[in-house]
Amino acid sequence: MSAVHIITDSCANFLHLPPDPRVTVVPNRLVIGNRTLREGIDISHEEAVKLIARSKNPPRVIPPTEADYTRVYNQALNDHQGVVSIHASREIYASWYNARKASQPLAAHSPVAVIDSQAVCTAQGMLVENAVRLLDQETSFEAMVRRVRSSIERIYAIYYTETTEFLFHSRILNPSHGILGAMLGIKPFLSLENGIITPIEKVRSRSQAVDRLVEFSIEFENIEQAVIVQSRSAPTETTRMLQERLSVEFPGRDFPVTVVAASMAALIGPEVYGLVILESEDTANGIP
C-alpha cells in the first residue's frame, strides 16, 4: 500500500507520528487578534494556545479551502495511485466538505476516499496514525478504507475545561447555563461523540475532574492506546495526579501527555484537560 498517500488537516494532533513522506497535513489558518497564522507551520499548538489564552476574544479557525485540497490532491496523485483523506468532524469544521468537493473531479481516474473522522485534536490524530500503520498491512485500497472507517467507532474522548467563554462563542454551551455555572463555580465536562462536542456534566474542582476522567477510563475493558490532553507540554500537578490514579487502575500501562490542538482550544478554551482512548479492535468486535 505504499502507493497510497494520506492527507489530513491540522486539527489532527499527533503523539507518535514523526514527519512521514506518506502523510500531508494541510494547515488551518488561525486568526488570533490581528494575526493570521498557519496552524502547525507558522506556530506550534502550544504557542498558539498561549496566544489564545492572552487574547481578548476567541480566535477564528479557517479550514483549508477547496482550492487548497485540489492542489494537494493533484500533487499527491502525481506520485501515488490513491489518496485517503481524513478530516475534522463535519459537524465542527468545513474541512471535510471542502475536501469532498475537491475530490469529486478526480474520482473518475483516481481513488480518493474522503473520511469524516467524527473527531478533532488527538482523536483525529489517532485515526491518522492508525491509517499510517495500515499502509503496511492492507493489500487493497478498499480494505484500508474499511479499516480506517471502522476505527472511528473505537475512539472516545472526554474533556474538562476551566472557562465557559469559548463554549458560548462556539455555541457548545447555552449562555444562560454558562452564567449560572460561573456564579456557582462549576466547570463543564464535555464529550466528543459522533462528531459533536456536548456538555455532559459539571464539576467544581480539578480533583473532581480527575475523578471523572478516571471513571471514564475504567469503562473500557481493553485499551489499545490512551493519551492525556492538556494545555502545555510539561506535565502539570493535575496531570501527574491523573497519571498516578490511572497507573493504579491500569498497572504497567503508559499514559503519555500531549498538547491540545489550537483548533480544539479555539472551541473549548485554552485551559483544558482531557483523555482520549482508542479501544482495542478485538474488544470492539466483541472478542474478549
Question: Could you characterize what this model shows?
Answer:
The strands form three sheets. The protein has a six-stranded mixed beta sheet with strand order 10-9-8-13-11-12, sandwiched between helices. Strands 2-1-6-7 form a four-stranded parallel beta sheet, with helices on both faces. It starts with a strand and ends with a helix. It is built from eleven helices and 13 strands. The longest helix has 15 residues. Strand 3 and strand 4 form a beta hairpin. The protein has 288 residues and is an alpha/beta fold. It has two domains: 115 residues, Rossmann fold (3-Layer(aba) Sandwich); 130 residues, Hypothetical Protein Tm841, Chain: A,domain 3. Helix 2 crosses helix 3, helix 4 packs antiparallel against helix 5 and helix 8 packs parallel to helix 9.
